[in-house]
User: What shape does this take?
Amino acid sequence: MPSIRRDKETNLNMDEEEIDDGRKRGRREHDGDVEPEDDDDGDYNDNISSPPPNKKKKKKSSDNAAEHSPMNDRHINPTGKPAEAGIIQEVYVENFMCHRKLSVKLCRNVNFIHGQNGSGKSAILAAIQVCLGAGARRTHRARNLKDLVRKEAGADCSGAKLRVTLLNKGSDGFMPEVYGDTITVERCISMRSGGFNGYKLLDQNGKEQSRKKADLDAMLDQLNIQVENPVAVLDQEEAKKFLTGKAEDKYAFFTKATELERLDRCYANIHDNIMEQQDVKRRAREGIQGFIDNTMKLKKEWEQFNEIDEMEVELQRCRAEGAWAVYKEMQEKLDVDMREAQKFSKSLEKRRVELANYEAKLNVTDDEEIALKNQLEDLTEEARLATEAKRKLEQDLKIAENPIKAKERDIKILRTEIKTAEKKLKSARRRLDQARQDIIENQGNAAEEERTRTRKIAETESDLARAKERVASVKEQVRKFLREYEDLEDPRRNANEAQNGTERQLNAVQQKIRSLQSEAGGGNNTLAMFGPKCKPMYDLVQKYSRKFKGPVAGPVGMYLKIVNGKEQYAKIAEFAIGGGNLDRFIVTNQDDLKLMDRLRKEVGCSPRDCAIYMISPRSTQEKYNTPAPPDGVETVTSVVSVENAMVFNFLVDFCKIDESALADSKESSEAKLLSENNGKYSIRGKVKKVFCLPAGDLWQVNKGLLNIVSNDRPLKQTIGVDRSAAIDSAKHELNAIQKELDRNKREVKAIGDQSNRAKREWNVHKKENEALTTKITKMEQLLEELKEQAEASEEVPTIDTTEFENDITVAEEELDDLKKKEITISQDIESLQPGVEELKEKLDETATRNGKILDDMDKVEAGLEDIVKGQNRRQEVVEKCKAKVREREQALIQQEEIVAEAKETVANALLAARKVQFATNRQEKRLEEKEANGGIAVDGVDDMNDEPSEQDLEAIDIVEPRHDLKRCQARVASREKKIENEKMRRNLSEVDPAVARDKYLRAKKALDSKMEQIEAIEQNVKMLLHDVKERKKRWVAFRAHIAEMTNLSFDEFLQKKKSAGQVEFDHDHGRLNLIVQKDNTDESTQTNDVKALSGGERSFATLSLLLAIGESLETPFRVMDEFDVFLDPVARKLALNTLIKISKEMEHRQFIFITPQDLSNIETDPKLRIFHLKPPVRSSMVGGPQQQTLNF
Assistant: This one.
């Protein structure tokens, strides 16, 4: 019905932003996701499409309808290939409903499941629903899962098992590094107590990876699988409700299928919450001003009590500082005098050493020269003896080597004789063989038995000879490999010990690295230290990193390290930064700020958790240039190292870390940073605040006044120490030790391989030797038996071989004797070898000692030469040195007298300073106890003894004054005058300090509580209002877009049957009506009442509406059960052809159609597969269960 369709192109912008539950919306283009577009102007309802007028309209040509059809370019695979993630590859059921075991392997595009009623078609749909998270009631087949277990399995059935295998390829795959190309969801339904009931997630190899329902939900959310959405999975019950429902029911079905209903409920709840919080905020603001005025009044009253006492204590401190300034001046003068005395003393000592050296050289006597000559003679004699010993050892070595050389010559001769004997033996055997061959040839066939015996004797003797030759070489190999194995035992043991030692070193270095890393802290595993939401927030930022338009940093604490060597300032540095800033995240633009706000809501952050700070994009390039800390103190920038430029610049801009100084104590920091001019204070340099150890107390100057803030909260440290240099050094050492260990292992393996090879060879040759010995014994016995048989034979050979046999025996005995002599001589050589080696070692030792003696002789000769030269010149130098020594001695005596006087003056100044400091400490203690008591003086404190003992004075440490003496005197005078004026101006005797303090603290606590509540409410209301407005605006546009696309698609589907139609939406009243024109060329066939249509026409129209609504879904697969039961043959054929065509065009989606109707006219191909289920077994018993058809 072209007249009903809208011809104008609709340009509604879909926002792909994740709404509430993070599900994906919107379509994808071939080059990526469509960017979200927000409407900045207009009211919510501007985009609501009003219901179309219920009247007949003129038709337009079908060509014009096709030209403007949204079907022309809708079903194009965005990626140009079949879907890779989320579609069903296989469904497997076991003992489920009517199936004992069933496996259905689906194709990626179109699947038809066909079978008679009762064959188990819908059981496959129920298995998909149950396995992918739906409950038993959602299947409309049972109230609980146990009712779905196959009844025919009997009482012994343990339960049912379901598996659904999903493809998990491509960029949309769920954790492909864990599950691979497929994910199998296994659902177990146990009928026995103690059995497993739940889900299992299996990877592509069938290995279990998880049993958590949360992981299943995350996977379904990632792949956008919605088994409880009636459009995605339409079972028989939902189809019945949709077919017979009213306009309101169809509209409710539409909003539920598109999730518009759930989102609308969520927005209504948010709006109610906003109203409640605004009412609470209004009531809180009405009563806050009274709290503020009362608190300020009480604070002013209470603070007046402490001002006079603090001024008096400050005066005493100035007096103490003046006393220490006097001591410092005296001490500095003493230090100058002592350095001068020390300089004279060092010069005198140096001159005395020079004089002693020159006198020692001058007083060298003839005896000393004679001693050196005697030493030279002794060394010469020792060298002669060493040379003779070397010569004797060389002779002994030659004598010791003579027997070895002689025996080696004997072995050489023996080996020549052995070769000659072996040749004689072979020659004798050839003659014997030839004689026996002659006997055999002469005797002919008559003496066959004798010839056989003779042949055996010849063969046995030949084999025996070869075996004896072989056994000799084998014995030699046995001895050789045994010696080789024994020689390798000590190297093998030493190599193993070296390897074990290296492994111990390696373990020690690894432990050291772990300890350093533990001290360093930080990293991904310790993010929870900065806040409970830091770790999940950080994980989400990493997950959506590609959606950010600029760099993102956070949490701030993970980029901070304490500089090595400055660990004592770690806690106050973190206190100066502020613990609430360590969990912050930093962005550079508004879009990233909005995205971070959404992530905070998804994590569930409160207003104080993981706050977002936006800086300029220029601040991400390099760190700000900050001044160096003042002399004697540190700043946060010098104590904390920040590796990220964004974080560093944020801390400078927001936390002012370059203006926060860190000091060991309040006194030392004031001395180095505080200055006063005409009663007004100022801080040197750029420093604005000073934090002091140990408690983190803070002082600062505001409008010339010094403000001191005490910290009562305990300090903590979450920032790690920078141990990177130590860790790198340890890792370098670890690499070196690892390489050494690898070398040790290779050496152990090489020696082990050699030892094992020698042992194997020794065993092989030993076994071979034993086998040959046994074989020789057997052959000798056999040969003896054959010879006895030959002697007993009546047949006497014509040729006597006894002489030849005797020749062989003589040759063999001679050869054996020679080999025995060879073995004996070899053993003698081995026994002589240790003595020769010992002589060689002694010879090397003697040669080394002789070389050392010659070096000593050279040194003694050089000493004698120095004694002879320069005697007169040394005498002249000695006289000059004596004159300089006398001059230095006189100067040192005078300087020591000056130092003694200065020490006495310093001691007196120190005593006076300690007495003043003792009085100051007593006064400060009284003030501290008074402050600790709430501003009230403690009883008995004024009775303390103000006269210090010697022990008390000795216990007072020397204090470094901040100002010189003149400045200290001026400060004392200024404070005395100020105190006098204040005492005259004030009269506070009639006020109770304890009561004023308690009133102030109670009022302040109440005020702080009210302010925190109002601030939290304002922040929540502001965020909720902005969020719900944006969401509602997108929701209205989203609803209008889906309604318009559903209307156009509905008409397109009806056009396939030469009909037309329109979906009439009444969003205000929640109704959905269908307008159908049976003949798209005849306006008179248009009707607003679907009930006026035939059953097939009504079913086809309803099916078209279902397909139109489904166009808005992005679920990877859709299932429709018995969708064609009410269609007439023509409508059913058209509907099937339409479904198949549309489904094939949408090859990035999978479709599963379940029907009991005939499918014989559908041809299968690679994109379409038909599964025929076996018909059910019908009971033929009278009164037994029969197949039934339910009336819809």
